[in-house]
Specification:
The chain is of the alpha/beta class. It is built from 14 helices and 16 strands. Bound molecules: zinc ion.
């Protein structure tokens, strides 16, 4: 159940009650593709960096080790030793971005595994069954993520099919949740809005899926190459047509600035690989902008990545040491940068929640953006 606690302009401060605990929103979900956050980050680490929700990729876990294996082991929570909420994506995005040869039919998608080329079929029912086997807290609907440059006619047909798939997802999820041997019988289902950069298609789709009374609504197919301004324009158009009393999730977004802007437009769930991916490359976020720790100027720098940061990296280690680890390709270097970056994002979400509660979100946003931009050289 979702509680809308407070609004400041369009910004929403909410609380999603789940069987795995409460999610305070706005929230940034930390992406652990194959049931681990890349960069040698353990679930124990997550306890120390304010992670609320871990996100795992259905497609990756379906291919390896297999969702039926995970079900036999008691589900994803037991498998990775994490008792807080987990969101699984539908597998759709990976099917469309990673898999080789694929064929989209009304029943679903036929494609080849990116690991061994094996033929796989995935449709709405299969995606729900896989996510039910994983036993995640929140399952995502199976949708087509069409190319952002798809023409209007293709987009209209694709979105209509995504709506039909969503109805099938809902039906199948209800069936699975009623079965005795289902790991999480309270699994929630979020629907996904599509439509590329066609505002009217997106708005109509939002209205259509809002009628299905799902547990939450996501906006997919953004952050795939369109400009930030285009993304904000779509959010301005679409978010008002999604139910306000449900979570609003912008998939795969984004930079701290993207998140600050999207919160201001009513979004309260986010996920993105940036903090972990950038961390693995020695790029770290601070309130004065991003630093590249490979830079020679940090060779003798004994200060932490960010003064005052309480993350496991900054509490103990210097920029000089972490730079050395990165250059020596020691795994610890990446690990410390990833921990810092996730802590930075999770802490920013904490600040965002406090600012909405205090009713000064716009001021907070402007100050935060100004700080991060001031550090840019
Ligand atoms: Zn830190």
């Amino acid at each position: 159940m979702y509680e809308l606690i407070k609004k400041d302009g369009l910004a929403k401060r909410g609380r999603l009650h789940t069987v795995h605990g409460v999610i305070e929103t706005p929230v940034f979900m930390n992406v652990g593709t194959a049931a681990a956050i890349k960069g040698a980050v353990s679930t124990e680490d997550l306890q120390g960096i304010k992670t609320q929700v871990e996100l795992s990729n259905t497609y990756h876990l379906h291919v390896r080790p297999g969702d039926e294996v995970i079900k036999k082991l008691g589900g994803l929570h037991k498998f990775m030793v994490w008792d807080k909420p987990i969101l699984t994506d539908s597998g759709g995005f990976q099917v469309f971005s990673l898999a080789g040869l694929r064929k989209i039919k009304e029943e679903g998608v036929y494609f080849n595994s990116h690991i061994d080329g094996k033929k796989i079929f995935m449709g709405p029912e299969e995606s729900m069954q896989i996510q039910s086997n994983l036993g995640s807290t929140i399952a995502m609907a199976f949708d087509e993520c069409p190319s952002s440059v798809a023409d209007r006619e293709y987009m209209e047909n694709s979105v209509a099919r995504t709506t039909r798939w969503l109805e099938r997802c809902k039906k199948e999820m209800n069936r699975l949740n009623s079965l005795e041997d289902t790991i999480n019988q309270h699994q929630l289902l979020f629907g996904i809005n599509q439509g590329g950069v066609y505002e009217d298609i997106r708005v109509q789709h939002a209205k259509d899926i809002a009628k299905l009374d799902l547990d939450g609504y996501a906006i997919g197919g953004l952050a795939v190459g369109e400009t930030h301004e285009e993304m904000y324009r779509i959010l301005d158009a679409v978010v008002p047509h999604l139910p306000e009393n449900k979570p609003t999730y912008l998939m795969g977004v984004g930079t701290p600035a993207n998140i600050l802007e999207a919160v201001d437009r009513g979004v309260d769930f986010f996920d993105c690989v940036y903090p972990s991916r950038n961390g693995r490359h020695g790029h770290v976020y601070t309130n004065l902008g991003k630093l590249n720790l490979f830079n020679a100027k940090y060779e003798l720098d004994m200060s932490p990545i960010e003064e005052g940061c309480q993350c496991p990296a900054c509490r103990h280690y210097s920029r000089a040491y972490i730079r050395h680890l990165l250059k020596a390709k020691e795994m610890l270097g990446m690990r410390l940068c990833v921990l810092h970056n996730l802590y930075f994002y999770n802490t920013m979400m904490e600040e965002i929640r406090a600012a909405i509660e205090a009713g000064n979100y716009k001021e907070y946003k402007e100050a935060k953006l100004a700080g991060m931009n001031a550090g840019k050289k």
